[in-house]
Amino acid sequence: MAETMKKYIKDIFKFILFLALGLFFVWLSVKDLDSSQRSMIWTNISNVFYDQRWIFLLFCMLIGVLSVWFRAFRSILMLNPLGYQVSKMNSYHAIMICYLGNLAFPRLGEVLRCTILQTHEKVPFQKSLGTVVAERIIDVLICGIMFIIALFLEYDKLSAIFTESNSWERMMDFFKGKGKYIVIAIALALLVIIYLLRNKIKDIPLVKKIKSVIWGFWEGLISVKNVQNPIAFALHSIGIWVCYYLMFYICSFAFPEFSALGTQALLASLTCVVIGTFGFIVAQGGLGAYPLLVSLVLALYGLTPEYGLAIGWVIWTTENAMYLILGLLSLVIVSLKKRKS
Prior knowledge:
single chain; about 350 residues
């Protein structure tokens, strides 16, 4: 009973922490704007519903559904080598409910997804969870590749984020002087301490946890080699991120100033997708963080903060509205389905 209470308290604390982070990013994005700029954000958002520009948001949702189907097919490919033939519809519903759960609570979606596959497809929870971990690793790698591509294509703009920062300049000045020798000395001292205390350090719970995460990362990565159709797996994985890119780019047509960038809008969309992904990592559902990061990127392309924030909030709301509506629909459908014993 005490352990259960501790778990509930820990979960509630995590929920409050992630929600507080999201609200902090909301405040951070508007704290330096005056009242006229803040009202302009709402004006830019409401303008989307003029001249039938909201149609582009519907196209964005349709592409979002396509990305879920890609993910559902990829999940089936991951489970086939384990001896489980999962239906396409149950795989789709499990992933859509996963998105819905993650909107409510961190990592709740992964638990719901594996539970649904266990209940309706007789896939053991731990085995499906292992494939989920492997899929996440693949997504991280693809996102990393996209970041490298964006950095290669838009190096001047992305580097401006650092070079225009006073803190970055101060750090560089530090390393130009004696600072680099101080850092080297500290690093060598740490290596010596770690070597001398290596037997005690490996028993520290935090170190064990880090080793477990690294080992799980490696096991998940090498599990991909068992996929029977690696080409289809690769195409579905790429398709997911192409859909994410198209969702953002198509939404840009709802904002005339953004679409007026022409070919620059193509590159800006890529950069926003890559940088914006970090918003979903640091805040619950990307609340506040995603629009803020999008606005910072779009500022590099000459768009005002209030215009960039409007774009970020509209795209964030569109995507989450899709996951909320279709996730609830999938939840209802799954709950009405006959369960396998």
